[in-house]
Amino acid sequence: MGIISSFQDLIFKISAVCTQANNFIQIHKQMELERITVVTRDEYAGAQDPIAFVWRGQRFQIAQILDRWYEGRLDSTRMPLRYFKVRCEEGDVFILRYHELFRAWGILIPSHRGKN
Q: Rounded to two decimals, what is the model's pTM?
């Protein structure tokens, strides 16, 4: 029973990772990126936890970091990126991206917001 249970757990975990990957792909297909200014918890360190950002002339205060993930760290052919899914005090949810090489922040624009 132990081997079957472990195998079922492994299948469940693989399924969860595949679902997350599919969600990530769908997010990237539906959004475009714009550069933003971000205030972090420790302003001297560029990719610390964001606490606020300015986008299209409006300041958004971050109430909660819902999720975070990394991309490109284990693959030497890709640039290291950090992502933060945040909920603002107004209730809006955004995905922020930090590009480590260029030390630049961007926001993945939800399709309903459109280009400015």
A: 0.67
